[in-house]
Amino acid sequence: MSLILVGFMGAGKTTIGQQISPLIHLPQQDLDDLIIKKAGKPIPQIFDEVGEAGFRQLETQVLESTIDDAAVISTGGGVIMQTINRHLLQGALAPVVYLKTSFETILARIQNDDNRPLATNITAMARLFNQRQSLYEEVADIVVDTDAKSPAFISTEIMNQLASVSELRHSAM
Ligand SMILES: Nc1ncnc2c1ncn2[C@@H]1O[C@H](COP(=O)(O)OP(=O)(O)O)[C@@H](O)[C@H]1O
Ligand SMILES: O=C(O)C1=C[C@@H](OP(=O)(O)O)[C@@H](O)[C@H](O)C1
Ligand SMILES: [Mg+2]
Fold first, then answer.
1. Number of compact structural domains in the chain
2. Which residues have C-beta within 8 Å of that of residue 123, sequence separation ≥ 6?
3. Is 32 one of the annotated binding-site residues?
4. Where are the beta strands (DSSP E) in 15-55?
5. Is ipTM beyond 0.90?
6. Which residues surround ligand 3, an ion (CB under 5 A)?
7. Is the CB of 30 under 6 A from ligand 2?
């Protein structure tokens, strides 16, 4: 069964996607990687040249083209900012898994990372973090807390939850 990972920067969407992909025998599609390939340049350079708005346009294009792929889709943390993206996520065939992580843990994981243009200032990050919580909840079918858990533990937890979702879907048929 495919799945889509959402959550704030540093929640582990890329890492967990990599771990789960061989477990469910599906390729990983990391939207940030697809954006980088499409633009032919790294994310900070995209932000510098076309701004966040230009980045968001590319993000919607790659989301639209992959959303119903048989894959583990790792989104970028800001994917839920655009209404159209939230509609795409809510209408997706695959369950959407929200990797929920406290702000303290996020800071410990990604502070000083120079590959994330929106993670350079703690006050601005905290504002984004607070704005986005309800949007992740809005699109999520499954919520998994990631604080103080290893990627392997989180991956197993997601696999178990997917098994229950699959059973529920079958029993409703
Ligand atoms: N559960 C976890 N426990 C500890 N470190 C983690 C965990 N998940 C991710 N990380 C680390 O946090 C950083 C950000 O992870 P990443 O997968 O890139 O997050 P995202 O794609 O959600 O922004 C990486 O250095 C990664 O190794
Ligand atoms: O939260 C965001 O707005 C962003 C998150 C990043 O992905 P990760 O969540 O994988 O870091 C990347 O898409 C870009 O830097 C913008
Ligand atoms: Mg990522």
1. 1
2. none
3. yes
4. 28-30
5. yes
6. 13-14
7. no
Cα→Cα distances 42→39, 85, 91, 109, 111, Å:
8, 22, 30, 20, 19
pLDDT, tens digit, 9 for 90 and up, residues 53-105 = 999 999 999 999 999 999 999 999 999 999 999 999 999 999 999 999 999 99
> Looking at this protein, which amino acid is placed at residue 50?
V
Task: Beginning with the edge strand found earlier in the chain, give each strand of the sheet holding 142-145 in spatial order.
Answer: 28-30, 72-74, 3-6, 96-100, 142-145
Q: Does the beta carbon of 116 lie inside 6 Å of ligand 2?
A: yes
The answer, yes or no, to whether any atom of ligand 1 lies below 6 A from the CB of 85, is no
Output the pLDDT for position 113: 84
8 A C-beta contact, residue 106 and residue 10:
yes
153-171 pLDDT, tens digit each: 999 999 999 888 766 656 6
- In terms of residue numbers, what domain contains 112? 3-171
Please report, for the domain that includes residue 126, its CATH number.
3.40.50.300
What does DSSP assign to residue 166? Answer: H
Q: Is there a contact between 169 and 94 (Cβ–Cβ < 8 Å)? A: no
Tokens of 51: 């701004």
